[in-house]
Write a structure and sequence with these properties.
8-stranded parallel beta barrel, TIM Barrel, alpha/beta, about 250 residues, binds phosphoenolpyruvate
């Protein structure tokens, strides 16, 4: 049985004060949830405030990105050592916004995943096709390449894969349950080719305009094990409802 995993990606939103206000409201709402891994990924500057408030709670802390060296002359970058020092146990790697705006290649994504694992950070590894790729019938080719290149020489433990069709991120267009299940099933097949039976234990999250209204049907799909949530994770009540999927 794969434990459901629901993660909030706040992107470039929320100051430290806004993070505290969110958690003051959110933590009591999810206090009783035992059977879901709950993760929040605030921006770097809000990580210390979040770490202090979630201590001893059932909420885990993630960063939204990482650099692949431990330290040195890399102006503006944040190392795995710094993330563990501030209390992160997870990190999002390969988000489509990083691939698109910051030109992160599969090779860089792979280096970042290896660096995170070297420092025992669990990885939320994002993949997904752009609209033109879907329309050109290349969805499976893109997913195959991203899985194989991103996870090259990476052991399967402590990896969570997030399938995020780029055309569904922040657009209000969610993949249908059929599209999500088809992609997740294909990703699990690719993971099986890499890891054999261990692929059955890897959580595959769906991301792309997840809301309190569509989470229940997405979570009913056989290979959807959770969600990576952007916009709808910014409000405590909305994200708590997503965490409590299927509790109608
Ligand atoms: C994301 O940030 O990973 C995401 C899926 O965003 P949204 O839920 O806003 O589409």
């Amino acid at each position: 049985m794969r434990k459901p995993f629901i993660a909030a990606n706040w992107k470039m939103n929320k100051t430290a004060g806004e993070t505290r206000a969110f958690l003051d409201e959110f933590l009591p709402l999810v206090r009783d949830v035992q059977d879901v891994d709950i993760v929040i990924a605030p921006p770097f500057t809000s990580l210390p405030a979040a770490a202090a408030l979630i201590k001893g709670s059932n909420v885990l802390l993630s960063a939204q990105d990482i650099f692949y060296e431990d330290k040195g002359a890399y102006t503006g970058e944040i190392s795995p050592v710094m993330l563990t020092d501030v209390g992160c146990t997870q990190v999002i790697i390969g988000h489509s916004e990083r691939r698109q705006y910051f030109k992160e290649s599969d090779e860089i994504v792979n280096k970042k995943i290896k660096a995170a694992r070297k420092h025992n950070l669990d990885v939320i590894f994002c993949i997904g096709e752009a609209l033109e790729e879907r329309e050109a019938g290349k969805t499976f080719d893109v997913l195959k390449r991203e899985v194989e290149e991103g996870l090259k020489d990476v052991p399967s433990d402590s990896i969570v894969v997030a399938y995020e069709p780029v055309w569904a991120i922040g657009t209000g267009k969610t993949a249908t349950t059929g599209q999500a299940q088809e992609a997740h099933k294909y990703i699990r097949e690719r993971l099986s080719a890499l890891y054999g039976g261990a692929a059955q234990d890897i959580r595959i999250l769906y991301g792309g305009s997840v809301t309190p209204e569509n989470i229940d049907s997405l979570m009913d799909c056989a290979d959807v094990d959770g969600a990576l949530v952007g916009g709808a994770s910014l409000k405590a009540g909305s994200f708590a409802r997503i965490v409590k999927f299927n509790c109608k």
